[in-house]
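This week, work through this protein record:
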Amino acid sequence: MASGMPPHASGPWVGAGQLLGRWKLWLMPAVLSSLVALVLSLLYMGGILTPEGSLHRMPVALVNQDTGKPLPGQQANVGTQAARSILSSGSSDGRVRWRPMSRARAQDELASGKVYGALVIPADFTATVGALATADARTRPALTALTNPGVGSLASSLAGRITQSAAHQVSVGIGKQLSATPEVQRASAATRVLIADPVEVRTQVGHPIGAHSGLGLSAFYYSLLLVLAGFIGGNIVHNGVDSALGYADTEIGPWHSRRPTVHIDRTQTLVLKMAMTAGLALLTTSLIMLATIVVLGMDAPRPGLLWVFSYCAVLTLGLGVQAINAAFGSLGQLVSMFVFIAFALPSSGATVPLEAVPGFYRFLGSFEPMRQLAAGVRAILYFDARADAGLERGWVMIAIGFAVALAFGFAATRYYDRRGLHRMVPQPS
């Protein structure tokens, strides 16, 4: 035996230079790392590069409160004409879904996150527009654009641009009509300039959120913490249990060990890992809330409900990780990374709204876990824990995910056990 050779090794010593020339050693790492880099690049960048170009039926409320009588020679008042113009232009390209409604309903829809913004035509709109053609036109008619920061800063910003653009089109249209009247043509140059673009747009917050809410991003980052806690915690339990039972080596720095293999079938191993996942999720969930709410001061008006929802979310994700690892073995961690991280983040709708991403991401968002968790967390943090704001959907999808994780994991392990595909490996000699 060569000097310094470990007692359990056999054969001649080799160097790294000799091994680098073996193409089979390169094959699997090269294929997997290339696929991961390519797919992650396409997924993440493909979802955020063209939000305005990908707009598809973004929900925005349209409130017409104008009660004025039609101006001379017109059949409808100015507010009604403006609303019709906005609805017709919005329905032509499918980018915006204008939803006509009352002011009270618009406020309710903003408070549940069902609309991303609103454009309000005031009750005196026709009267103020008609006054522009009088001797001194000093009071400008105004439209109000309501924002909804609870749906996320980008979604609220996109809705704000939509309402601002619609208001500008209304203003230009009114200006053309008024400019053709004899009264305006005889008016001063300053008056004609004012009437060319007469409508003022006032922006207000339609549904305010707390100052410690990250401008509507705290729900996304909190949901991301839950996903990472479930994913990373599940894999830590998986690797730790395998090492403790002797099915994987333990290597810390220069120290390497292999415990005696414990005789346990796959199904019982999965039970053990899932039970530990459930126990450790109590700790990780509590620490997340301690750090975000107590230490950092994140606005969380319903901490008790948030903790229960968070625990169930972390538990379900952890059980999903254990089920995938049990079914796919060593590839399980890569598979679960794609399921819970790679596909989930760009389809969550928490940073870039799903109405502003390509259709593939909207499809992923219908079932990917982070979309459901973000909807539930957002409802708890910003929308008074309303069921119709996403909390009901979050609970339903957590229950479905919990059942699928158990069914898939135990179906796989019981199948392997019945086929005699045990994990027992020869002990090192």
Q: What stands out?
A: The chain has two domains: 58-205, 214-418. The beta strands are 58-64, 96-100, 117-121, 142-147, 200-205, 250-252, 255-257. The longest strand covers residues 58-64.
